[in-house]
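To: structure subgroup
Subject: Chain for Friday's discussion

All,

I'm putting the inputs and outputs inline so they're searchable in the archive.
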Amino acid sequence: MNKADRTRSIVYVNFSPYENAGRILDWLISDYDLVVLFSFDFHKLNNKNQSNSIKIWQQGKKVKEIKLYQLPSSEALLFITLPLIILLIGLQTLWQMIRLRRRYGTFDTYLTVNAFTAWLGNILRAWGMVNKTIFWVWDYYPPGYPDWKIRLARWGYWQFDRWSSMTSSKVIFLNERLVKLRQDINVLPKNRDYPIVPIGTNPGRPLSKVKPIIGHMGVLKISQGLDLLFDQLPTLIKLVPNIKVEIVGSGPDEAHFRARAKGYKNIKFYGFIKDENKVDDIIRHWLAGVAPYIPDTSNPAYWTDPSKIKAYISQGVPVITTNITPFAKEVHAAKAGVMIDYFEPDALATAAAKIFKDSNYRKRAYELAKKYEYKKIYANSFK
């Protein structure tokens, strides 16, 4: 594509496996003439094809992929190597953007969901490489974490978050909770309204008949609360004798959960699946999807909009979740799932048995998904 022929271009920076959460990448590719995706690895997903990369689409067609250097590091050494990882991400982003600008000219928009890469985007804007920066705020990491290493890392991230929230051309948020937090601590003015753009859904075609399967999709970390499913699995098997469990995803604690699954013949691990359509096809066969976030004041899930819940309801799959995320209350109000107390004995198992007996949960989950269809909610948010 000649520079003169290009009308709209965007640079999008995110971290694996969240590049297409809520189908945002699909929408960008369909809506922009030129899309450049910087994808960086952070979680260890045990995926051989996982690597830092740049991917380029023109007129909806993928035309190029550039492999970026990735610092070899184990999860145990993540904190020690974190400054080097951040430095490497920064240097590679700036250097590659210099090269890309020579080829494609100044980009219209730079979009990211991470505070550090938002800070990089504002540098690129100051250098004249992009015209506008959009910081789509996905997270907040509370500083009061017990482990001093994580507490220090969160403090460092917050410095970038504060600066990027104030200096990006446009700042949008996943929910009102993230806005109010920053206004309460005087990072953002209280007399201004900020756009709210939640994670989108991709409503499929719900199956009328499904098997007794309960599933979980996402990065496998203990902090996601998946242990609750294993804790209550004996009770769940008593309530639903033919129950099966399917787990889609990988992550730093995958070995922990595989060890907990030993002795059970009804548990299947799919591992990390890159193709979202394949993931959707697996999910649509479930009777319930779990998102049992641990109720902890330092849990980032309290502030975010969970992509896994949006993926579940997209396929008409009811949700079993705790009262942590802002969206949990909406699921509860719509009767699109069951909101449980994390500490109540057998609550998850009882909720699953309840959902299995009532097909109306599936209908209501799908109706809730249609409210957040990604093409509708993204159309006016990033222009």
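Points worth raising on Friday:
Residues 78-104 form the longest helix (27 residues).
The mean pLDDT is 91.

D.
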